Amino acid sequence: MSSGTFTTEDGTEIFFKDWGPRDAQAIVFHHGWPLSADDWDAQMLFFLHQGFRVIAHDRRGHGRSSQTETGNEMNTYAADVAAMARHLRLRGAIHVGHSTGGGEVARYVARHGAEAAVRKAVLIGAVPPIMVRTPANPGGLPLEVFDGFRAALAANRAQFFREVPEGPFYGFNRPGAKVSQGVVDNWWRQGMMGGTVAHYECIKAFSETDFTEDLKAIDVPVLLMHGEDDQIVPIDDSARIGITLLKHGTLKTYPGLPHGMATTHADKINADLLAFFRG
Questions:
Q1: pLDDT tens string 181-226
Q2: CA triplet 200, 39, 73: central angle to 5 degrees?
Q3: In the prediction, which pLDDT does 199 show?
Q4: What pLDDT score does 1 carry?
Q5: What is the CATH number that goes with domain 2-278?
Q6: Is residue 99 annotated as a catalytic residue, yes or no?
Q7: pTM over 0.90
Q8: Taking every annotated instance into account, which residue ranges of this chain make up the domain AB hydrolase-1 (predicted)?
Q9: Do the Cβ atoms of 91 and 117 come closer than 8 Å?
Q10: Contacts 24+ apart (CB under 8 A), 71-76
Q11: How far apart are CA 91 and CA 260, in angstroms?
Q12: Which of 128, 155, 210, 243 is deepest in the core (most CB within 10 A)?
């Protein structure tokens, strides 16, 4: 097992974990906002024990990577992944992204996937094709929603980063929900490791980036996994539209499951991921 860093062309230091046999099928995990590679612990350990090579990085401005004030947008995020793939000499990897990380995967595979011979992709509760309401996306969320995120982050990031996991992210605000304080604390811990500037600017990146052409351009099998009770990225505005844009897409939905279902229902998600990886 190993972890380390590499430096991008603009001097940003990117932290990554790289566990498992170097000749095994590689899976690269892309985390959501405002988290880190640690958000994939339940998947990294499971797939390591299944014989895979598992890799996860902290996006620039997040976790243990440099707290950047530049490059906090999807083109650069994808370029950073391409640089990591070259650094680790990845060929034929499978890329899995959650939420904002799903947008990163879509942009990376569309623009850089051929270079590294990407084999498959998975988007879990992912932001593509676009979150914000526009004339072309009338069902999206109003810009004011994301302005509210920015205002809350600027006013008291530490408090905001309590309210998100305690409430909608894991569905802990639903009647009868079994709340895990450890999961809430871990979300807060990861968020507070990152940089305020990067987190603030990433809100625009995940909400306003249009991935429509990226989805159309992807020419490998893609599995869309989405909780039907996702309160962060509503399924009707994301996966149900995204599946119509993919050449080789499969949509799997989960009744009653929340945005953070890869954590709250890891056994179910891991089993379905394993079937897709081996299929």
A1: 999 999 999 999 999 999 999 999 999 999 999 999 999 999 999 9
A2: 30
A3: 98
A4: 59
A5: 3.40.50.1820
A6: yes
A7: yes
A8: 26-255
A9: yes
A10: 71/10, 71/12, 72/197, 72/198, 72/201, 72/202, 72/205, 73/201, 73/204, 73/205, 73/209, 74/103, 74/104, 74/107, 74/205, 74/209, 75/107, 75/111
A11: 29
A12: 128
CA-based nearest residue to 205, from 119, 107, 111: 107
Catalytic (active site) residue 259: yes
- What tokens appear for 211 in the block? 């991935």
Determine the pLDDT at residue 77. Answer: 98
Residue of 35, 3, 6 whose CA lies nearest to 19: 3
Catalytic residue from among 99, 214, 237, 238: 99
Of 31, 199, 226, 259, which residue is the catalytic one? 259
Whose tokens are 């095994």? That residue is 24
Residue with structure tokens 């990380």? Answer: 101
User: Average pLDDT of each block of 10 consecutive residues along the chain (279 residues)?
Assistant: 91 98 98 98 98 98 97 98 97 98 98 97 98 93 97 98 98 97 98 98 98 98 98 96 98 98 98 97
Tokens of 18: 């790289």
- The sheet carrying 249-254 orders its strands as 2-7, 13-19, 53-57, 26-30, 94-98, 120-124, 222-227, 249-254
* Amino acid identity, position 53: R
